[in-house]
Hints:
By secondary structure, the protein is an alpha/beta fold. It has helices at residues 25-35, 39-42, 81-91, 108-124, 153-159, 192-198, 210-220, 246-263, 266-289, 294-311, 319-325, and strands at 15-21, 46-52, 70-74, 96-100, 104-105, 131-137, 143-144, 147-148, 178-179, 182-183, 187-190, 225-235, 328-330, 339-341.
Amino acid sequence: MQLPETPTVRPTRRLAVVIVNYNSWPDVERLVADLGRADAVRDGRAELIVVDNQSPDPMPDSLHSPPTGVRLLARAENGGFAVGVNAGWAAARGCWLLVLNPDVEADAGLIAEVSRLVERFESAGANPPGIVGFGLRNPDGSPQPSVGAFPTLFRTVWEQLIPRSRRKYQPDWRIKPGPVPWVTGACVLLNPEMMEDVGGMDEDFFLYYEEVALCRSATDKGWRIEYDPSISVVHLRPLQNRAISPKMRVITRHSKLLYFRKHLPRWQFLGLYAIVAIEAKVKGAWAVARRRHPDDASSWRRIGRVAKLLRDGNELRGRMVLELAEGVVVTGRGQDASMRKDS
């Protein structure tokens, strides 16, 4: 008598690694190859989800037929980092999300370490953290800032007096493992219940400050934000160590203004508006006087326009910000605002 075959029982998936890509295919290919060697990915306890925001460069041949445990989600447009994270979250409902920038270096051991952490949270039952940020290192092994205090108008004024590389983050000597205000999105673990509670990342942010806004929203809902440097990765190209392009300058100013408008009292938003408006006029005039590249002066005009539009209650959301940064200016009010080319 032939016995019936015993059905294969696959382990419950607990972790989804979300990598949001825009034209960083070499980094993505390397990261997927390194993380894909993890036992948890091979046996189904974890999966890798690559969300591509309409990269103009072609996908590498190695990713056209993804290996076991890897999913590719191709979006029809570049909606920004928050949109990409939310797309990964939607594809992996119920799983904890490990969000990684493409430009991090990590091996299969990262999946094992984070999976054990998730198992501890789930076995403990009550009161897990909503967000856990991990340690970042520079390529030379030195620590890289990854924790910050929530922005305020006073802090913003003070930051103008210190180097750009130190403005957004708190210095290492002030950071200890445990509860913190906010952590960077370069390597961060997100509790799926927290994501449901806050409705995911705020897609009004195209790039930058979306992780600060997420931590602010989670904190307001009673979730705990933690920093755990016992798990770490190398982050190759953090923004604070790179020159800012004119386009990125527009996007980052918009993100900070938007954060102030959404999460701080009106008087603090208006104070930041005044700072940005003055900065745009002075630096724009300086760029013209020094006969710098036309994009430099144009970006400051766009920043002044962004500040005024937000002050007046206009909605500048997601991809609209990218279009504006690339030379399109919003001229009307609300979501149906018309556009014209910047001169």
